[in-house]
Amino acid sequence: MKKILVTGGPVHAHLDSVKIITNRFRGGLMADIAEQLVELGAEVTYLCPSLPGMKVPAAHGRMTLLGHTGFDDYRRQVAELAPSMDGVVLGAAVANLIPAKPWQGKFPSHDYKPGDIVPIDFLVSPRVIDEVKRVAPKAHLFGFKLLSGVSNKELIRAAYGIVLEAKATAVIANDTDNLQQKFAVTKERGVHPLKQGDVASWIMELLADEYYSTETAQNFPYNVDVTLERAVKLVEEYKDRFTQVEGGLVFGTVAVRRPRKKLCFVTTARGKRELEKFAYVDGVSHKKRKVYSAGGKASLNAPLLATCFANPEVDYIVHYHEQVPGLPTYPYAPPGTVRDSVRPNTTSFNISEHGCMLLFNKEGRQL
């Protein structure tokens, strides 16, 4: 059973002991998501403000309801709860402008006359989502980004910025003009349109994924020079197809089979900000869910590349983030997961909201 922390409703800041600064949200949509996650089999802890008028999920045997008393308490509870969770879903609307020096006690209104101007300094609050992976590195982290009256391009750009900075699994973005339409932005900058009712099942699907680990050797094998040269030439040939995104990351992969070596290949390195780094994959164990890599960690796509190379006709592979017309298209799964590694390998194909996998034989013919 997956354990998930969900936060909803406003997160207020204190101006004095009785006055608060907050957002005009009651947490209805996040309460609905929390209820749906329980219905899908999760054990949910729901954190929301201890304020009147908040919508909370229905009481349930697998639902724990907690209250917070404002920003500092919310921040503390998220940090304490996150390490014990499989997933952290931060949907609370945090007051990101908070008084720099709240009044101790109650504001002394008796010292002022009506019409007096009272200067108050505000600071931009720390972003709680940026702190989660420090205390819970193995938890799947999901954030929400709400903007108003912006283009879809700007909405996606803002969401992906949070994905990179917070190291989130995904950030779910939408505009105040249409709260039912969401766009889930993933690490590889995939954009997944979702309706409000689809969010919980999409999150559960990603929480269920099993990832491959990588075992690395320090030195790149000395006798793969020819294979490496071919990989370098492929990068040069397809460099205009590779996508550079926010944070300087470059998305795109090539892989070249090493002659006479079953399921051994040279491919681009992981997390690349350039196209010159490569790794040597000395086999992949699908049973152990492990990639054996030398010269650094191979692309997250390595398990899928190994599946493709299991077809003896495949000599090299090119992957980039475009859909190629006319190819079969298979459902999205995060790179590096068991779900992503199980694909047909007889022809080239697309992956929905991710890109294409182009398979070539020794003669350079696309399969």
Structure write-up:
The protein is an alpha/beta fold and 367 residues long. The chain has two domains: 3-207, Rossmann fold (3-Layer(aba) Sandwich), CATH 3.40.50; 213-360, Class II aldolase/adducin N-terminal domain (L-fuculose-1-phosphate Aldolase, 3-Layer(aba) Sandwich). Helix content is 22%, strand content 29%. Helix 1 packs across helix 5 (199-207). The radius of gyration is 24 Å and the shape is elongated.
The stretches of 5 or more residues where confidence is low (pLDDT under 50) are none
Number of strands: 25
Distance between the termini: 42 Å
> Biggest β-sheet, characterized?
9 strands, mixed
List the helices and strands and how they pair.
Layout: E1 3-7, E2 10-11, E3 13-14, E4 20-21, H1 28-39, E5 43-49, E6 63-68, H2 71-81, E7 87-90, E8 93-94, E9 97-99, E10 122-124, H3 129-135, E11 140-147, H4 152-166, E12 170-175, E13 181-186, E14 191-195, H5 199-207, E15 213-217, H6 225-238, E16 243-244, E17 250-251, E18 253-257, E19 265-268, E20 278-285, E21 290-294, H7 302-309, E22 316-320, E23 329-330, H8 338-341, E24 349-351, E25 355-360
Parallel strand pairs: 1-5, 1-7, 2-8, 5-6, 7-11, 11-12, 15-21, 23-24
Antiparallel strand pairs: 3-4, 9-10, 12-13, 13-14, 16-17, 18-19, 18-22, 19-20, 20-21, 22-25, 24-25
Give descriptors for this structure:
Rossmann fold, 367 residues, 8-stranded mixed beta sheet, alpha/beta, L-fuculose-1-phosphate Aldolase, 2 domains, single chain
Q: Could you write a compact summary of the structure shown?
A:
The protein has 367 residues and is an alpha/beta fold. Helices cover 22% and strands 29% of the residues. The chain is built from eight helices and 25 strands.
